[in-house]
Amino acid sequence: MCAVRMNAPLAASLAALLSLGTTLTATAGGFIAPVVEPVVAPVVEAQPVGDWAGAYAGLTLGYAFSGDDEVGVNGVSPNTLELSGANAGIRLGYRWQRDRWVIGPELGFEGGNISDDFLTDGYDAESKIKNVLALRLKTGYVLDNDILVYGIAGVARAKVDYSVTGNGADIRDEYTKTGYIVGLGAEKKINERMSVTGEYEYANFGKETLSDGVYETRATPDYHNIKLGLNFRF
């Protein structure tokens, strides 16, 4: 009997078909899905909240402007005092913190030259706020970049020198008057013990009637104040 001889290309093709058939038989029970590696989301770490709690003391330097006190003598209004000037102060406070919220009282004392005067229509008028003692409540929120932003509300007592003379009037008085302060501020840490502040405040001390027994006027001191400060944490 004669042997059947195959050429090399035909033999290779038959071998490939046999290998494919074996693979199909082995996987006839079902489709095997390819294995896909799970994608792991990157871990984002929460930024730590700075510690603002505790006692502190500080210094401030400010400039008051746009005060408005219309001087009226027995119903005659000769002119308006516009209080302005530099001021400096010291402060002492304490803060409590819960997560990012911060609240606390602050006692401050400020003095300077917040004043104005005029001479017109025979009247010579002058008003000067010599000093202010204030108790403020500051409520704020801590941002991620170690900045505390806050609102300001408080009660203040001012010592005022006031005079209106001329045309028969001679009203001179030094009085104290209680009013209020409101404002906004921001504080940035330099390190764990020191921080810088910037604040805007509006102070209003209501109305005070002053008289020399014959003539009278009504003082209405108020002003806006921009302050820079430096705090030292205990």
From TrEMBL:
It is found in: Membrane. InterPro entries: Beta-barrel_OMP, OM_autotransptr_brl_dom, OMP-like, OMP/PagP_B-barrel. One of its GO terms (cellular component) is outer membrane. Keywords: Membrane, Signal. Residues 1-28 form the signal peptide. Belongs to the Omp25/RopB family. PANTHER family: BLL7405 PROTEIN. This is Outer membrane protein. It comes from Paracoccus kondratievae.
